[in-house]
């Protein structure tokens, strides 16, 4: 990253257009060709918004992951997809996300869909994305994916489920490299959420075995946060418990949620960059509708520069933007880029 200091990126997800939100709740009224058309149109919209913001790195906004039937669990064989969440009403919270029962040996004979998503992004980008912009794919890691599957006799706990899913994710990231993906983010928010009570060395081993085939072949990023379902956190918001063990993950870039933590543990980025890993700092709060100004962003970038050099710093929202309204996401990203550019100019970069 030496040629791209103070790089700007996103995690993965982006808000659905309103019409796609409606359509995703009424998929039985659409045919498969209709759905493919919607997915492509929504991806174009997400890409255009990110390009307009001026980001250095973009994704497809995860616009094709309409619901569990068309997301990763829909690609898994051996599970019975839950038909409704256990709690529908009342304040939004993580217990409104249901879990799926495992009824047979887990497998994903057709992959997990991330490769097809990235190939669609490549086709869209050929027409509307500048050559200087990097295309990134994002995919949940096996420990995070395991969280919505109920253990059974064959898979008696979450770690057994994780081990079954690990080769499927590993195969998917390997195929992403084969189709030309230059940057892959493996999202493992469950690891950061539960690091305070689980074996962090075990998490490192799981993560490194997942990405082993692609290390050195593409830019590997790892995203950690404390949850963002319907704008709510679930973890303990104490990132200190992840270190120093997580520094042994074989990644090029490690993303840390910071804005929602009011930048209190900002000194942790020095540990990350001292370990030879680029620190991707969450500099925009996706859980707040306060729109950070360019000057807010510039001040936050300057604070980060007190701990780490510009050529090892990356800036992004705290988490994916899927739970933030599109109008706010657009402005937050534009101001984030503007603020980072302001500091680049000050430094003569």
How would you characterize the overall build of this protein?
It is a single chain. This protein has 349 residues and is an alpha/beta fold. The protein has one domain: TIM Barrel. The chain is 38% helix and 14% strand. It contains 11 helices and 12 strands. The strands form 3 sheets. A 7-stranded parallel β-sheet has the order 1-12-11-10-9-8-6. Strands 3-4-7 form a 3-stranded mixed β-sheet. Strand 10 (253-256), helix 9 and strand 11 (278-284) form a beta-alpha-beta unit. Helix 2 (32-53) packs across helix 4 (114-128), helix 2 (32-53) runs parallel beside helix 11 (326-347) and helix 6 (158-178) packs parallel to helix 8 (200-211). The model has no long low-confidence stretch (mean pLDDT 93).
């Amino acid at each position: 990253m030496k040629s791209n200091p103070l790089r700007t990126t996103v995690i993965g997800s982006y808000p659905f257009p309103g019409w796609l939100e409606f359509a995703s709740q009424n998929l039985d009224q659409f045919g498969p060709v209709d759905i493919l058309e919607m997915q492509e149109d929504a991806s174009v919209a997400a890409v255009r918004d990110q390009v307009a913001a001026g980001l250095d790195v973009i994704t497809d906004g995860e616009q094709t992951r309409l619901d569990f039937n068309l997301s990763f669990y829909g690609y898994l064989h051996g599970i019975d997809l839950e038909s409704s969440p256990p709690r529908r009403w009342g304040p939004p919270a993580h217990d409104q996300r249901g879990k799926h029962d495992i009824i047979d040996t887990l497998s994903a004979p057709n992959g997990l869909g991330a490769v097809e998503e990235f190939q669609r992004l490549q086709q869209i980008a050929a027409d509307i994305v500048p050559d200087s912009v990097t295309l990134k794919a994002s995919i949940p890691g096996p420990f995070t994916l395991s969280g919505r599957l109920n253990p059974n006799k064959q898979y008696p706990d979450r770690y057994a489920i994780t081990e079954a899913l690990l080769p499927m994710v590993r195969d998917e990231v390997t195929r992403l490299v084969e189709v030309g993906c230059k940057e892959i983010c493996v999202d493992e928010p469950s690891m950061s959420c539960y690091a305070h009570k689980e074996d962090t060395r075990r998490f490192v081993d799981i993560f490194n075995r997942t990405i082993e085939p692609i290390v050195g072949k593409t830019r590997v990023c790892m995203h950690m946060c404390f949850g963002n379902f319907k704008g709510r956190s679930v973890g303990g918001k104490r990132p200190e418990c992840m270190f120093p063990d997580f520094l042994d993950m074989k990644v090029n870039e490690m993303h840390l949620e910071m804005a929602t933590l009011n930048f209190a543990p900002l000194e942790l980025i020095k540990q990350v960059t001292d370990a030879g890993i680029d620190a991707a700092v969450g500099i925009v709060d996706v859980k707040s509708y306060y729109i950070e100004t360019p000057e807010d962003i510039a001040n936050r970038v300057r604070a980060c520069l007190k701990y780490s050099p510009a050529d090892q710093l990356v800036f992004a929202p705290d988490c994916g933007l899927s739970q933030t309204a599109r109008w706010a996401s657009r402005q937050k990203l534009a101001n984030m880029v503007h603020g980072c550019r302001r500091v680049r100019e000050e430094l003569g970069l």
